[in-house]
Amino acid sequence: MTVEDTIAVRTATDDDWPALELLDSVGFGYHPIDADRTLLRPMFRTENIVVATEREVPIGLALYLDMEITVPGGHQVPACGVSWVSVAPTHRRRGVLRTMFTELHRLMEATGAPLAALTASDAGIYGRFGYGPATVATEVTIDRRFARFREDAPDPGGVALADAATAAGRLPELYDRWRLRTPGAQARPKAHWDYTFADPEERRDGTSALFFLVHPDGYATFRRKGSDAEPVAVVEELIAITDDAHAALWRTLCGLDLTHRIEAVQHPDDPLRLLLTDYRLPRTTARFDELWLRILDVPAALTARDYAADLDTVLAVRDPFRSAGGTFALTVRNGRARCVRTDAAPVITLDLDALSAVYLGAHKARTFTAAGRVEARSARDIADVDRAFDVARPAMLGWHF
To answer: For the whole model, what pTM was predicted?
Structure first.
């Protein structure tokens, strides 16, 4: 019996919400609270939710959010943010996900958005659907008691303590200034900000309520956890529009008394360790992917961003899931691109997930070539692509969705 014989896929209705919450809570191991329903639910439109049913009982769901993502050069690109992907444990390995994704991507393609994005709970799932890991982050821990800044490190000051009400009036504007220049960052909906400042106690995982540090060009939010013998500050978010803001916020965090350790997530190239006298003090405890991208429209996506060098190449892009692939002539002059379908012989051949992974500059074509994931006419052609796709600012995820 095939999945088509027993599983139906349809658009959700408001009456489906209790079943959708149950599916998602079982899949991701949480129980919905009132704040989830009253604050976060406005982000979701039922017409963007695909439901899989068996005998009219929901057994899977997937949805997308209308988003805007910054691409290299500071350009804003419409995107579809995939979320709430859940299949009941009673219906695994029956093709439910592929069936839902086929319909969901048909809906997303109809919007005309050139990009789809998601944050993956399982890194082994989404490559076969053309998604590639497009931003990278590291988790670091710092023994604050030994944090000493170099004598030549900037000490610009300007950080102020803020309560939640003050932060609510400052952080969204600062975030927007940051995300408009940061590849991978997304516009952040009001519903998500409302949830952030409501800070439901049930979602704190045993930590304190949020504390806020505000700078004219950035901010940091953090929580306290741990015992009196081992107090820890957990940085939830650090947004720095300028190098001075970055240095000032970290100096303030490292000045927290009654704190032994600071835990934070940052880009691998974050300059914190270079500000300190002890390069090894920020100890990397994890490295992981954050934003995953699927290019829905190759010419539209490749012409949306800026480039660091001129380029003339022909890309043969394979899409094993949908029909975004093909052969494309890509020409870059003075930072801007022209991309059209062509019958010319390919210079570089790659799968869509690989192209999506290098799109924001977080990964290099040469790395995919070394892994046998990209084929090229010559090593010079790969080097030309890497020079062109290089970025001045590292790609970073704006907010988890």
So the answer is: 0.94
Residue 261 is inside which H or E element, if any? strand 261-266
- Count of Cβ atoms closer than 10 Å to residue 57 Cβ: 9
User: Of all residues in the chain, what percent carry a pLDDT higher than 90?
Assistant: 98
- Give the phi and the psi of residue 38 in degrees, each rounded to 5: -85, -30
| Residue of 101, 126, 195, 368 marked catalytic | 126
Distance in angstroms (rounded) separating the CA atoms of residues 84 and 106: 17
| 126 included as an active-site residue | yes
- Domains, the chain, ranges and CATH? 3-113 (3.40.630.30), 137-289 (3.40.630.30), 296-389 (3.30.1050.10)
Neighbour-count burial of 48, counting CB atoms closer than 10 A to its CB (0-12 exposed, 13-18 middle, 19+ buried): buried
Active site residue 288: no
Q: How far apart are the first and last CA of the chain?
A: 35
CA 124 vs CA 65, 121, 379: distances in Å? 22, 9, 29
